């Protein structure tokens, strides 16, 4: 069968080629993201598409896919907030995702950010870059094992993070509207988690109801000097409220792998070739903020799994009429 891959990254090419050679299928590969214009680049005979992007999949795109006889989209990541699922349903296009390609990759990255912030390494690096060796010596850190860590969201990634934090000896509390049954996780309310945690680690989906779950009111409920990390979805934190909390010292450090305005900034990057965001730029200058470009997932294990699982979903759609990770329309 003939398939197409959009948003193809250089690190994915090897795994895509290996899969095609092993299975005898053909994959057209495009570095461009999939949209209502780039869909025209697909050759006749393509029956399914795998994609990886954080910019929108629009209703118009799905109409064009259906007109080309392409009824299956298998994304190589988890998040669905950028997909017009109603538009897909209306066009008769079925969608699948990869809900778990490597929970450990994201959990380990979140903990890495926490360790960097807890030991004030940004401030140390800033002094050393300014040839101020003496100044770099005066930032007393904190130990994770002596901290209370609040994990918001106890899915696969959240549970992996809990295990790592417990390995340091930390007291871990958690909040999830759907607690894991018969687990040893210490669940508390949101307000209790905000009030008790020295470190807050977010691992919930970017559903509309979760937008700005960490806002100015939430920051007011937190301990002074809290550390907060977001490797989940950009809409979870009100970034302007975070900036105010950082400026006041309420928040001692923030690790942001998923930026609130990422989608629009990436669209601008595609169209204009530049990434210009004054809020990003301000945060980038803060030594107590760690910014990264949505790479918490990015390990060899995760990339291989994203490719393999996505293509397995796609071929299952085509051959069997069903896919293990098909997204249910609501």
TrEMBL record:
It holds the Pfam family 2-Hacid_dh. Residues 131-274 form the S-adenosyl-L-homocysteine hydrolase NAD binding domain. SMART domains: AdoHcyase_NAD (SM00997). Keywords: NAD, Oxidoreductase. InterPro entries: Ado_hCys_hydrolase_NAD-bd (IPR015878), D-isomer_2_OHA_DH_cat_dom (IPR006139), D-isomer_DH_CS (IPR029753), D-isomer_DH_CS1 (IPR029752), D-isomer_DH_NAD-bd (IPR006140), D-LDH-like (IPR058205), NAD(P)-bd_dom_sf (IPR036291). Gene3D superfamilies: NAD(P)-binding Rossmann-like Domain (3.40.50.720). PROSITE patterns: D_2_HYDROXYACID_DH_1, D_2_HYDROXYACID_DH_2, D_2_HYDROXYACID_DH_3. Belongs to the D-isomer specific 2-hydroxyacid dehydrogenase family. This is D-2-hydroxyacid dehydrogenase.
């Amino acid at each position: 069968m003939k398939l197409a891959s959009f948003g193809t990254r250089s690190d994915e090419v090897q795994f895509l080629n290996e899969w095609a050679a092993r299975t005898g299928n053909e994959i057209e590969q495009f570095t461009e993201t999939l949209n209502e214009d780039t869909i025209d680049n697909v050759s006749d005979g393509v029956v399914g598409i795998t994609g990886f992007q954080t910019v929108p999949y629009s209703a118009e795109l799905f109409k064009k896919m259906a007109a080309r006889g392409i009824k299956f989209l298998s994304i190589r990541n988890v998040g669905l907030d950028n997909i017009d699922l109603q538009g897909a349903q209306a066009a008769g296009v079925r969608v699948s995702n990869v809900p778990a390609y490597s929970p450990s990759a994201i959990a380990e990255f979140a903990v890495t950010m926490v360790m960097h912030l807890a030991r004030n390494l940004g401030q140390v690096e800033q002094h050393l870059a300014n040839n101020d060796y003496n100044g770099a010596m005066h930032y007393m850190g904190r130990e994770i094992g002596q901290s209370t860590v609040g994990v918001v969201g106890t899915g696969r990634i959240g549970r992996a993070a809990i295990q790592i934090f417990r390995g340091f000896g930390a007291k871990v509390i958690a909040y999830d509207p759907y607690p894991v049954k018969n687990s040893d996780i210490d669940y508390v309310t949101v307000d209790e988690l905000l009030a008790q945690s020295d470190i807050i680690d977010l691992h919930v989906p970017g559903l509309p109801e979760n937008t700005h779950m960490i806002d100015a009111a939430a920051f007011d409920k937190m301990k002074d000097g809290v550390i907060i990390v977001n490797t989940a979805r950009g809409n979870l934190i009100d970034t302007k409220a975070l900036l105010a909390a950082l400026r006041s010292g309420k928040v001692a450090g923030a690790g942001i792998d998923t930026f609130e305005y990422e989608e629009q900034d990436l669209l601008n990057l595609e169209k204009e070739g530049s990434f210009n965001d004054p809020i990003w730029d301000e945060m980038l200058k803060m030594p107590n903020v760690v910014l990264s470009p949505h790479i918490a997932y990015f390990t060899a294990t995760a990339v291989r799994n994203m490719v393999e699982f996505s293509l397995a979903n796609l071929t299952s759609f085509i051959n069997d009429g069903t896919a293990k990770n098909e997204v249910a329309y609501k």
